[in-house]
């Protein structure tokens, strides 16, 4: 069949996008959701979550060059990024950069989110060549198309950020970005420099927030129009945002802040909403949007209430995560310094080596010039912890004698009242001092016992336990430990006042090593926020004249648990009867 010019024009009229198309219109016409990345596969419908329309269309506003989305989870923020990419690939070809916190996360985004959209949305099919095809010029992290490209980078990669000019910058989860991309400086600043040659540039920053005062997305939002999604009260019709403080658990209702009437979730959400700026005098070129899970069509209010109750019972770190991911709000720390006297009074009599609730033991070792310091920590359900023993082994770390003492100690079995024995499941030894080679050699021979070398790394966005590498000479397994994040975790657990998930127990027995000096050490640092090169930065400041090894060791023992990653709700230690050997009763070893 021959296609005539008249027929071609008729086909093109149906297929080609209409003029003056904006991002939300494009998504409604051409975006298809994939089954592996969406619970609602099929044609995209902006009306499913109507608050998304204005956010997407702000991308097309010539007066707006920056958009900040401070958001909870479960509101479709990743789909906003994908729709923006699809629009510029199909309708307004441009060079695009997508930033993720790490290179690995950028690869995951490309494989699990971008690739399915390119495959399943007919308007995008064929626009970008398959990276597997010969001479396609495309890789997992770089997709070329006529008139532009999509480059995906990790904020931890200076080479990716210093590549080519870009018009569209999409930065996802900016609060998880490291403070510096290698040694090159702030990753967002590096990326923004790539947009300077474009008069029509667009910069979109998206994230769930973290800690008040240092949150990148909070700073961007506070410098914007600060818009919130308002809905009218079903009774008095007064518009207002959905606030957690107005939620009533009984009946799962929300009270109107104007007339006080109570209505359920579906009554509130059935009305037409609108974005309202709470900073009308702000710079109109920077639009900021705040979203929480209360407005989401994918999360019911009764689920949010259940999540809150679990988080409240789980301790400060779980409540912090809930505030960040459910309310889309920053977490404000309560108090910066722990009371060492209160921790001393917390000590209790275990009655045996380890209490019955302990299911896993981890250990940590710090190397000093004249000694090795070690702590053994027991862990139970909900990561409730028990200090088991704190020991110092004096001697020259350059000589084998002190290491032999440590090896014997780490080989011990600790027993409960019923003779159940538990051995240490994982040990982290700090290799960052003057005896790095000795640490590597000790750990290399004992990796089968999960005795690993670690190296601490400070800074925001560094995970508590990073990926394993192998040292060049000794071929020893080495893990990078995010010490700042670990300290925050330890401190939040020490602040917990009631037994249960996250609570820290300590023994009263004098021979276990938990004396007043230990508690001075574990409370030896405080968290402060300082301005560094114009940006707020969290720093840990040590009190003078106090050793901070107890804090470091609890940090490393916590990292050992995360590295081990046991299911503490299921782990059951093995019980064995005492055995006779050479006429002496010896305790069974598990």
UniProtKB/TrEMBL annotation:
The record's section on PANTHER family has: PROPHAGE TAIL FIBER ASSEMBLY PROTEIN HOMOLOG TFAE-RELATED, PROPHAGE TAIL FIBER ASSEMBLY PROTEIN HOMOLOG TFAE-RELATED-RELATED
Start and end of every Phage terminase large subunit GpA ATPase domain?
38-275
Task: Give residue ranges for domain Terminase large subunit GpA endonuclease.
Answer: 286-567
Map out region (Disordered) in residue numbers: 570-590
Matches recorded under InterPro entries: GpA_ATPase, GpA_endonuclease, P-loop_NTPase, Phage_lambda_GpA-like, TFA_Chaperone
Q: What is this protein called?
A: Phage terminase large subunit family protein
- Species classification: Bacteria, Bacillati, Bacillota, Bacilli, Bacillales
Q: Can you tell which superkingdom this protein's organism belongs to?
A: Bacteria
């Amino acid at each position: 069949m021959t296609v005539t010019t008249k027929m071609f024009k008729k086909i093109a009229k149906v297929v080609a996008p209409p003029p003056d198309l904006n991002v939300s219109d494009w998504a409604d016409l051409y975006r298809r959701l994939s089954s592996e990345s969406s619970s609602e596969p099929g044609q995209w419908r902006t009306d499913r979550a109507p608050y998304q329309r204005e956010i997407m269309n702000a991308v097309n506003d010539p007066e707006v060059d920056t958009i900040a989305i401070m958001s909870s989870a479960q509101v479709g923020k990743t789909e906003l990024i994908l729709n923006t990419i699809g629009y510029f690939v199909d309708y307004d070809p441009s060079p695009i950069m997508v930033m993720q916190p790490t290179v690995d996360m950028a690869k995951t985004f490309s494989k699990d989110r971008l690739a399915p959209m390119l495959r399943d949305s007919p308007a995008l099919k064929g626009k970008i060549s398959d990276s597997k095809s010969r001479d396609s010029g495309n890789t997992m992290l770089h997709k070329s198309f006529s008139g532009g490209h999509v480059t995906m980078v990790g904020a931890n990669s200076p080479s990716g950020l210093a590549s080519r000019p870009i018009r569209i910058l999409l930065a996802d989860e900016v609060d998880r970005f490291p403070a510096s991309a290698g040694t090159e400086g702030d990753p967002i600043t590096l990326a923004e420099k790539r947009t300077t040659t474009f008069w029509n540039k667009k910069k979109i920053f998206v994230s769930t927030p973290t800690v008040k005062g240092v949150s990148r997305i909070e700073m961007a939002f506070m410098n914007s129009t600060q818009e919130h999604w308002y809905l009218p009260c079903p009774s008095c019709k007064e518009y207002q945002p959905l606030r957690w403080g107005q939620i009533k658990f009984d009946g799962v209702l929300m009270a109107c802040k104007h007339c006080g009437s109570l209505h359920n979730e579906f009554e509130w959400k059935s009305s037409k909403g609108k974005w309202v700026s709470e900073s009308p005098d702000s710079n109109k070129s920077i639009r900021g949007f705040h979203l929480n899970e209360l407005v989401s069509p994918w999360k019911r209010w009764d689920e949010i209430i259940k999540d809150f109750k679990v988080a409240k019972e789980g301790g400060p770190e779980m409540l912090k995560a809930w505030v960040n991911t459910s309310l889309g709000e920053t977490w404000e720390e309560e108090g910066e310094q722990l009371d060492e006297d209160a921790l001393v009074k917390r000590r209790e009599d275990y009655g045996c080596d380890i209490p019955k609730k302990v299911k896993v033991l981890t250990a940590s070792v710090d190397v000093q010039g004249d000694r090795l310091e070690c702590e053994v920590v027991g862990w139970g359900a909900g990561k409730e912890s028990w200090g088991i023993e704190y020991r110092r082994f004096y001697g020259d770390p350059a000589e084998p004698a002190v290491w032999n003492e440590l090896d014997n100690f780490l080989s011990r079995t600790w027993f409960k009242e019923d003779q159940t024995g538990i051995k240490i499941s994982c040990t982290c030894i700090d290799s960052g001092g003057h005896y790095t080679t000795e640490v590597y050699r000790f750990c290399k021979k004992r990796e089968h016992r999960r005795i690993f070398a670690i190296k601490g790394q400070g800074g925001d966005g560094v995970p508590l336990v990073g990926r394993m590498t192998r040292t060049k000479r000794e071929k020893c397994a080495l893990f990078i430990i995010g010490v700042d994040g670990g300290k925050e975790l330890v401190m939040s657990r020490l602040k917990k006042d009631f037994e249960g998930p996250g609570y820290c127990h300590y023994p009263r027995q004098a021979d276990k090593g938990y004396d007043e000096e230990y508690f001075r050490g574990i409370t030896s640092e405080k968290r402060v926020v300082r301005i560094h090169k114009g940006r707020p930065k969290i720093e840990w400041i040590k009190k003078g004249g106090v050793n901070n090894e107890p804090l470091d060791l609890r940090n490393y023992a916590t990292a050992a648990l995360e590295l081990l990653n046991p299911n503490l709700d299921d782990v059951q230690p093995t019980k064995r009867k005492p055995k006779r050997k050479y006429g002496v009763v010896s305790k069974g070893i598990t």
